Records
---
Amino acid sequence: MHKEVKAWHQAQTKSDKAICELLYETITTALPKAENKVWHRHPVWFLDGNPVVGYSKLKDCIRLLFWSGQSFDEEGLHPEGSFKAAEVRYTSIEEVNIKDLKRWLKKAATIQWDYKNIVKRKGKLERLM
């Protein structure tokens, strides 16, 4: 585990840390070629420099975010923001459905919008896959 991600996990409550560690293990197993680091103050995974999945601490939950998640056509993921991101929020480890998570991660590897070049394209997203 990247030292910054480990430190981020250590700063969470016991129940939030358990959720994060389950997410971490599942994501790193499903996306073995992805780069993982703390980006904008939370753990994020990148494929070829493009952010695909990450999680963060909100006031009352852990939010799992898929940057291209609105294109997954999946129940359980909710639109987030004004681009193509979708999220799911967890308040306990029992809420994490591993089967759904693995399916979403498989889609994250194959369905991507080009967030890496969004600034260069002046806010316009293009589909990569």
---
Amino acid sequence: MTEQDKSSNVVWHHATVTRNRREAMNQHRGGVFWFTGLSGAGKSTLAHYVEEKLYQKGCHTYVLDGDNVRHGLCADLSFSDEDRKENIRRIGQMSNLYVQAGVIVLTAFISPFRSDRENVRKIAGSDFHEIYCKASLEVCETRDVKGLYKRARAGEIPDFTGISSPYEEPENPELEIDTESHLEECADEVFKYVVKAVDL
């Protein structure tokens, strides 16, 4: 059965409360700010830091974190290439729903494959902002708080990005930040970018 077959009897319902009305109430635009990079590159740290600053300004925000999503929405998925693709597809669709609600959504996912990130861009259109948290594998391994790199090196975790599975760097991200040091300065740079993007 194709996607077309699955959706042929489903009709989109247009609500009276539109995105424009929600954004007018929120006093800012919605947007998807997609943090990508190796494990340990600072994605979650930056996303939560920026969310806190936005929250203090009265913004409507939500952080979608890779580990948290794997506890619920994507708990049925493994880390095979195919399941990673499906994981990002689901997050892309969910992120777009948040944007239609006028929410600033910050996503922290390794999302190692360019094609998957480009598919999310197609879903969200101009609301998608790719933020590349650039840090070398060597630096990320020194930040191995969860011990994942150590386990991957020992062969205990298959398909681990950077070790036994590739990471494809963004070619033209909206924002590239060097997260090897001074994360607070990086967070301020991202915050300024987000403020401008959502017309805050």
